[in-house]
Specification:
The complex is a heterodimer of chains A (81) and B (616). With 81 residues, chain A is mostly helical. Helices cover 53% and strands 5% of the residues of chain A. Chain A is built from 4 helices and 2 strands, in the order βααααβ. In chain A, strands 1-2 form a two-stranded parallel ribbon. By secondary structure, chain B is an alpha/beta fold. In chain B, a hairpin with a 2-residue loop joins strand 14 and strand 15. In chain B, strands 11, 12, 13, 14, 15, 16, 17, 18 and 19 form a 9-stranded mixed sheet that branches. A 5-stranded parallel sheet of chain B has the order 2-1-3-4-5, with helices on both faces. Chain B has a 5-stranded parallel sheet with strand order 8-7-6-9-10. Classes of the chains: A mainly alpha (81), B alpha/beta (616).
Amino acid sequence: MLSSEDKLKQVFADVFGVDSNSIDENSSVDTIEKWNSFNHMKLVLALEEQYDVRFQMNQTIEMLSYALVKVVLSEHGIVFN
Amino acid sequence: MAADSETLNAALRRLSRDSSYSAYASAANALHELTPEASELQILRVAISRNFTVEGMVPVLEAELARAGFYPQVYLGEFDAISQDLLDLQSGLYSFRPDFIVIAHWLETLAPQFGSRFISMSPAEATAEIDRVLEEIRTRIATVRQHSAVPVLVNNFVLPPYPTLGILDSQSESHQIGGILRLNAGIQTIAREFPDVYVVDLMSLSARLGYEQTFDERYWHFGGSPLSRAAMCALGREYMKFIRALRGRVRKCLVVDCDNTLWGGIIGEDGIGGIKLGSAYPGSCYTTFQREILNLKDRGVILSVCSKNNEEDVREVFRDHPEMLLREEHIAAWEVNWDDKVTNLRKIAARLNIGLDAIVFVDDSRFECDFVRENLPEVEVLNLGEEPSAYLRLLSSSGYFDSLTFSREDSLRTQMYRAEAQRQDLQNSTTSLPEYLASLRMVATLGKADEITIARIAQLTQKTNQFNLTTRRYTESEIRRFASDPAMDVFYMKLRDRVSDLGLVGVAILKYEGQQATIDTFLLSCRALGRGAEGVLLEHCLKSAAKAGADRVLGCYSRTSRNAQVADFYNRCHFATVSRTTEESVWEFGAKTNFFRAPDWIQVEVIPCKEIHAVK
């Protein structure tokens, strides 16, 4: 399924309370101040709902940046153009 | 992000349409950016003492509190520190001075053996464990009650979906599920011993959701969080029901639409004999729905009707339809007319002397629901959608009217409010209807009848009663003949908006004689009413007439029992009167003397015309 990055950025914006324009390829645990463990769980839950997927635990542990989230989503058939 | 309440209000408006976890997180973040003063909401402090991870539920609770008009401040006790929080008067929980205390406890942490090694316990040991757990809970609650007078919410326990003994469990003298049921009964007994202690029925909540939807083992192992996203959302909303009830924020009044809500079909089109109601499908869906509404009335909910119809048509159904469960005397306030629903909901609130935040509005139309949501965010809106068999569950699962008391007085409330309504004067109010309509981004497509559209055009001339100026019924072959007649034009109008495609909703038929054009037929399907689309179709007629060389356009209104709402249509569109009786009126529009413009909130597309072949 082809999906837009805007939608993905919006999830990040919602969960971390930042502007979606501030999210880019380099956004990660290190650049987003509010990306702590609880908000990481919220991100996982929000992504699962948004894309109707269920991640494996090891996948959720891996996805610590915007780019890595896209990699994991692509493993579930969600492709970004 | 800018710390103004507009960001929060936008997030809350989004939440009324989109209850996704993302939307909750976004609203909670918007709240955190605001000071309580800037939010202009009333502060409400909730302390949560817990032995499992509830962090995922907190944004849901916070956002729901904001929706109910509170600025939430949440104190989360340390993980598995319920006794420390509650037994020590010097604890952070008490110095937080909460308005509500929530005890969120999970059995597997409280009594690990019970959950996972039940088989290793003898019946006597199991009983002793139940007693120990209940004693611990009683001590905690008794101490809270000594130290604080605020309401306490304590949950019961979820049943294991697969008991250790499998099918033998239910046959055993000491069974695991039975043990948890005893615990839950014990919690209920304890709660009743103390004032203002309420049981949050997590067992039933999980049963409603189902096992697969309730648990998420991944975060149980990873972070001590046993509940799934869906269960955390449901739990947050469940806590809210208590807070609303205890803070007097319960909804008091149910405002219902009529057509395709209380009965199947449209009274103005189908007539009292044609609407669906009764014991057979699909009427049975509506009857079941009415029964639930009647239950709500008996619980003390005030009922009102808000419908775009002729009032007499609707009253007749309430009075005379044998299958109606709801009757005139059950309704406290009526707003049955052609005004928009925001205006009518304001009138209902004024007449009953209640706040808009006490109203739940129920309608099958997404258009009406979104319009109310945009303009009256205080009103809770329930969009029933298109599946009448689901109406009952949509209403009963909402919990809008949940309260913690019930008295005989409650069942008499409608009568009281009926009297109140009769005392109140109506007051008109303005709304931003054009703004809302513009936000729909409507597109009207105008074209001439062709092979594909003829059937639908004929059908509309046969079916449309309300917005129909002349109510002339035509067959397909007649429409085909008109369409191929060089002295006539058959126009159709399709309409779509950002939400949905309404399809072909308008028809106009023009006849040309020399320099004069006559509008033979002008109609609009009831699904497109109230949007200003008729103006687009009329403007198209006027322009086409001018192009065909007509400098005078005649319009005619013929009265029927159903089309009172358009009696004044040509007058409103700046036509001049030619002749007028109660039965029929003729109006004229001179290209040089009159001026009419369609509303600017609808974008117009005109389809170039195609050839039509007359049937010989």
